[in-house]
Amino acid sequence: MTHQTVRVHHDSSSERLLALKDALGEAPVERVRLADLTASFTPRSGGVDGEWALALAHLESELPPIVVHRPTLSVIDGLHRLRAARLKGRTHIAARFFDGSRQDAALLAVAMNVAQGRPLSQGDRVAAAERIVAARPQWSDRAIAVVAGLSAKKVSELRARMEGLPRCERRVGLDGRARPLSTVQGRELAGELLRADPTASLRTIARRAGISPATVADVRDRLLRGDDPVPPRQRGLAVGGRGAREGREPGGRDREEETRSAEELITLFEALRRDPSLRLNEMGRSMLRMLDACALLARDRGRIIANLPPHCTEQLAELMRGYAELCQEFAGELSTSTVRPGPAR
Questions:
Q1: Spatial separation of the C-alpha atoms in residues 197 and 104, rounded to whole Å
Q2: Distance, CA of 246 to CA of 168 (rounded, Å)
Q3: Count of CB atoms within 10 A of residue 285's CB?
Q4: Measured between alpha carbons, how far is residue 122 from residues 119, 128, 139, 336, 341 in Å?
Q5: Beta-bridge mates of residue 69
Q6: Interatomic CA distance for residues 196 and 205, integer angstroms
Q7: CA 62 – CA 279 distance, rounded (Å)
Q8: In this model, does residue 4 exceed pLDDT 50?
Q9: Contacts of 303 by beta carbon, 8 Å cutoff, 6+ apart
Q10: Could you read off the pLDDT of 18-50 as tens digits, one per residue?
Q11: Are 219 and 229 in contact (CB under 8 A)?
Q12: How far is CA 159 from CA 32, 137, 141, 198, 246, in A?
């Protein structure tokens, strides 16, 4: 049989890792001997849950193929299915293969176990995030958070506690683009470019200044008000305040993530939509339905505006501003919430 595998570049972004996870679902399926397989990539500190594996063994339906790292024949995703197959006395199991480095396989194991099957515990997600920070320090907090199934704030706190990490002047976001930790210079350059050509598009300025279009929009608005293109708190931190470790504001928020592109927001939503702990929770499903409408806005904002009845635009604008304020308050409450989810059932 001709081996067909799925590959990933060793320095891939989190976006490519998530895309790879989805692509593996379309990879060809092969039969593999159980005796040839090993387990070395599991992100679960407690190992295989015997009761869960037994419940899978009692199912009459065929279980999905496992995912295996071909160079080492180690299981990336599907250890419970592997145990179930052994309990049923099987000698072979259906598998899809990944061909890449051990480090990439370990990252893939986290991404796949977060999004499907038996949910990882909070402790396992934290441990996984720490391993990703060590392996990919150039990834943004939000990019790591999506893979590990945590909040960007939590990843930021973990990064702050870790010692010996290399200093990265730029971080790679969810959209695969590298942006500077500090946007001060980019904002200043964007301000100069906008003064020279006020009619230039946001994307043109963003490309030349090395910042996101949303940040350019904020610079433009600040210039129209007669303000400094750089917010005072960023200007102060950039001078060398103690709170500016690795470009981080007090409270743990990364300035690189002050604004996010529509592509990043859509990527984040797609990752959340695959999370079983949200899909299997009534309130989680309600949130996903609401966010689905927001994703539509992120994708088709221009087309929506162009096709709205003109006499409704002012009322809609007022309504959107009101809901935006509520969403900001809700986001703040989520960030400071001490509520922790109960055990998965």
A1: 44
A2: 8
A3: 12
A4: 9, 10, 21, 17, 9
A5: 74, 98
A6: 11
A7: 22
A8: no
A9: none
A10: 777 777 878 899 999 999 998 887 888 778 888
A11: yes
A12: 39, 9, 8, 39, 10
Strand, coil or helix: 30: strand
Tokens in use for 151? 């909040």
Q: In one letter, which amino acid is 318?
A: E
Task: Write the burial class of residue 8 (CB in 10 Å: 0-12 exposed, 13-18 middle, 19+ buried).
Answer: buried
End-to-end CA distance of the chain: 41
Please give the Cα distance from 174 to 261 (Å, whole number): 9
Return d(Cα 289, Cα 283) in angstroms, integer.
10
* 123-166 tens-digit pLDDT: 888 988 998 898 888 888 888 888 888 888 889 899 988 888 88
Give the separation between CA 195 and CA 82, rounded to whole angstroms. Answer: 63
- Report which DSSP code applies to 62: P
pLDDT band at 73 (very low <50, low <70, confident <90, very high): very high
- The answer to whether 253 and 153 are in contact (CB under 8 A) is yes
Amino acid making up residue 45: S
Q: By three-state DSSP, how is residue 29 classified?
A: coil
Q: Which long-range contacts (CB under 8 A, 24 or more apart) does 50-53 make?
A: 50/83, 52/80, 52/118, 53/80, 53/83, 53/84, 53/87
Dihedral class, residue 132 (left if φ above 0, else alpha if ψ from -120 to 50, else beta):
alpha
Strand order in the sheet with 92-98: 30-33, 92-98, 66-69, 74-77
Residues 107 and 77: beta-carbon distance below 8 Å = no
Q: Report the C-alpha gap between 73 and 35 in whole angstroms.
A: 10
